[in-house]
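Incident review: delayed structure delivery

Summary: a single-chain prediction request sat in the queue longer than the usual turnaround. Root cause was a stuck worker, restarted by the on-call engineer. No data loss occurred. The affected request and its eventual output are reproduced below so the record is complete for anyone auditing the incident later.

Affected input:
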Amino acid sequence: MKKKKAEPAEAPPYRDFQPGQIWRIGEMNLAVTMVGKLLVHYRQYKTQSRGSGVSLCSKTDFERFLVKGKATLVESKP
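Output delivered after worker restart:
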């Protein structure tokens, strides 16, 4: 007897990173500037001022950070 393949679950919204996305965690915003194969470049700034440098981390670490902080997607540019 053949086993049925499990249907792939829908990807959570945290997985599909696109440049131009802005995520909000409390009073802090994270703006995704560039997405590579394994890494995400993002800017972290308070809601009032926007003068920080670019940070870099892996996609899985960035996803964990968003889930842990209960982030919400504020803006997504095509």
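Verification: The chain has a mean pLDDT of 82.
Action items: add queue-age alerting; document worker restart procedure.
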